[in-house]
Amino acid sequence: MTMKNAALIVTLLLPVWVFCQPGGRDNDTVGVPVRGRTDTALTKVDSLKEVIVAGRRLPVERKQGKTIVNVEASVTNTGSTVLEVLEKSPGVTVDRNGGIALNGKAGVLVMIDDKPTYLSGDDLNNLLSSMNASQVSQIELISNPTAKYDAAGNAGIINIRTKKNRNNGFNGSFTTSYGQGVYPKNNNSLVLNYRAGRVNAFLNYSVNASKYLTNLYAYRQYYDPDRNVTAILEQPAYFTGTVVNNTAKGGLDYSIGPSTVLGILVTGMDIHRSGNNAANANWLRPDGSVDSSILTRSRPVNRFRNGAVNLNGRRAVSKDADLSADLDYLHYRMEGKQDFDNQLLAPGGYEEIYRSDIPTTIDILSGKLDYTWRVDPTTVVAAGMKSSSSHTDNAATYQNLEGQQWVVDLTRSNHFVYRENIQAGYGSVEGKYRSFSYQGGVRYEYTSYTAHQTGNIQQKDSTVSRNYGSFFPSGYLTYKVDSVNSLTLTFGRRTDRPPFQSLNPFLYIINKYTYQTGNPYLLPQYSWNFEVSHQYGNLLTTGLSYSRITDYFSQIFLSDTSKTILYYTQGNVGRVYNVGISASLSVSPLKWWSAELTAVFNHKQLRGFNGNNYTSTISQLSVNLSNQLSFGKGYAGELSGFYTTRARNDVQELLYPAGQVHVGLSKGVLKKKATVKVSYRDIFYTGAMEGLTSFPDATEYFKLKRDSRVLSVSFTYRLGKSFKVARHQDGAGDEKDRVQNG
Fold first, then answer.
1. Rounded CA gap, 715 and 65, in Å?
2. Coil, helix or strand for 460?
3. Cβ neighbours of residue 174 under 8 Å, at least 6 residues apart?
4. DSSP string of 84-105, one letter each residue
5. With left for phi above 0 and alpha for psi between -120 and 50, is residue 460 left, alpha or beta?
6. What is the pLDDT of residue 729?
7. Which residue in 198, 241, 354, 446 could disulfide with 469, CB within 3.0 to 4.6 Å?
8. Nearest Cα to 599, choosing from 629, 640, 638, 643?
9. Which CATH entry fits the domain spanning 3-16+55-720: 3.30.930.10, 2.40.50.90, 2.40.170.20, 3.10.290.10?
10. Across the strands, what pairs with 553?
11. For the CA atoms of 48, 51, 56, 61, what is the dihedral angle to 10 degrees?
12. Cα separation of 477 and 300, whole Å?
């Protein structure tokens, strides 16, 4: 264990001993009249010009079936990206390729405002790493979603809720922040809302600009059949660049009568990322002496654009029944261009120059209908149906510079077209009986797709089609033992369909000796998830879970006939069994101090075939601790962090222990119309991602460091008056799917 990791663990665990000391949470809500109490300030209603309803909101809350991360309640989220907030959320881990796991299980459906993002892999990573936390109010971690949700996501759902103004009249807020790590980062957002009578209109806009860096070191050893080292490839790489994200979201809700609401929602996003990368490939002999060295320079330029329109309506067909409908159209345009220059660093060495252009367009049309019937005060029946159609067009063109002329490389270039249709229906019932509350439902989804790769004079034309359907039951049963104790059993069956571009067999060049390719024969994977949990008031929650994944598709690594070039791809490799134990403790040792401690332990076993039969096991512990401090006179502080022991998200990749510690301070200013926040993230600079990958006849140690130690300051100003009204509901459904690029 390094000194930095030891310091991180001590910082996280030092306050834990206080949890056993006497003390209770201060549950008083500031500014809210309590029955039986006289408050003279509140009796003079005529003199009030503004009423502010405020209360203590914990960074993490738990409700039936979900963990809620209140992003604004954590000072150290200032200047963070959404991906950085997820990395320190309870039970969430992120691997070096941007893959997200929940409670030790990969395969998470990421949604924004109840709508799946349609993204995965690099595109999802680029979106979340360019989206600022100031745009988000809450992140919901749902390990066992109900039948109303899409069945996608073996590990469950992460639902990112963006800010929505809930006040009457004209209201809004403006936030700007500046962060300084190795490079600067700037984030700005504007939230506006107008609500009066039958009309509610809103507009959100944000622009985020930052410079990033990634420092990657890889040390790859090749072996003969007797496990003797035959060659060593050392690959230090340094990636820098800029990313600018413009996001706009606007909508209008109109009540055409006491029982009918119609709405329209329009969103647009433009992310531009440009980089300047340098990487060395140093071939070493078994004794460590240099054999040859190749310098690769590349200049990637990526553009991600998305436009979406949602039409929604809700009607109360009777006093006990509601009908809602949603129609969505989404268009994605992704452009990826990259120039490569490989130079052999030796007298008379060669130079290879080539470039790539990989544009992708995705069009998605989705419609859904939901019906809810309140049978009696304790029972609700729901049913619905959904249909979605998606079309993906991906072209990859590689050109080599030969004699001052660009020549198309037909061995690498291709054109991939993918069409998919999903039809779904569900039914569920939720209710209470004496000390029991329950929910049960089943969803059926039928999927058909065609994947077509057009050929050329050097590559064959190929088509893969598949049709399949399946049922997905889910539910929970809760027994309330007494006023503070309750027991809950949850269960559910879920699936993960291959990301669109994971089915595309084209080559994506990472460097001269590392490629990435898709697999058109990938099958969907399925999982059963069970959990028994106990809750003791708002103090302690514990759980025991079990899950089994079949046809598990994992990132796997292959080598060519020369065994010098390695390929990243995905394949169905077998089964995964996961047993988890979790505990969450929420205490307030002192009136000015509240703390939230979450620990998740997972024991995972992978069994399957990938060139040979294998069994792999690993135990992993993740700990999250958040201390919220109130110093009076409007000052508030935070000390938080997380630590994860060894982790395995894929069959062949092992991640070493890692963690971070964050501190922050906030202060209300300008008569509480504004807030200033200062945060310092990853103060010990322990956020590096380190691990070991096993290839056929090779192993690779890697260490990836980002610009994670950042000092940020933000300023938020609230516009308009703060009269509390019912929360705006935008009627948007839980739609969108998955997309991956490269």
1. 34
2. coil
3. 188, 189, 190, 191, 716, 717, 719
4. HHHHTSTTEEE-TT--EEETTE
5. beta
6. 35
7. 446
8. 643
9. 2.40.170.20
10. 572
11. 160
12. 51
Tell me which H or E stretch contains 162. strand 156-162
| 305: confidence class by pLDDT, cuts 50, 70, 90 | very high
In the block, tokens 């006040």 appear at 167
Spatial distance between the Cα atoms of 529 and 68, rounded to a whole number of angstroms: 20
- The DSSP code for 320 is T
- Cα–Cα distance between 462 and 482 in angstroms, integer? 63
Question: Any idea which residue has 């369909």 for tokens?
Answer: 497
- The whole-number pLDDT of residue 23 equals 39
The whole-angstrom separation of Cα 145 and Cα 426 is: 13
Return d(Cα 77, Cα 59) in angstroms, integer: 10
Beta bridge partners of 627: 595, 639
Dihedral angle, C-alpha 678, 679, 683, 685, nearest 10 °: -120
> 357 and 389 in contact (C-beta within 8 Å)?
no
DSSP 8-state class, residue 31: T
Do residues 634 and 667 touch, judged by C-beta distance below 8 A? yes
Strand pairing class (462-480; 436-454): antiparallel
What ranges make up the beta strands (E) of 566-686? 566-590, 593-609, 613-632, 635-644, 653-655, 658-669, 674-681
How many angstroms separate the Cα of 561 from the Cα of each of 454, 516, 566, 570, 613?
Answer: 25, 16, 10, 19, 21
Let me know the angle formed at the C-alpha of 468 by 463 and 472, rounded to the nearest 5 degrees: 145
Distance CA 404, CA 654 (A): 44
Contacting residues for 674 by C-beta, under 8 A, at least 6 apart: 668, 715, 716, 717, 718
The helix (run of H) or strand (run of E) holding residue 700 is: strand 698-706
Backbone angles phi, psi at 147, to 5 degrees: -65, -20
Domain boundaries, the chain: 3-16+55-720
**Residue-wise pLDDT tens digits, 450-481:** 989 887 777 778 888 999 999 999 999 999 99
Read off the pLDDT of residues 351-401 as tens digits, 9 standing for 90 and up. 899 999 989 999 999 999 999 999 999 999 999 999 999 999 988 899 999
Token pair of 232 as six digits = 């060593």
Residue whose token pair is 């420092």: 215
How far apart CA 15 and CA 5 sit, in angstroms, is 17
With contact defined as beta carbons under 8 Å apart, do 642 and 658 qualify?
no
Tell me the one-letter amino acid at 510: I
Type of residue found at 175:
T
CA gap 463, 454 in Å, rounded: 8
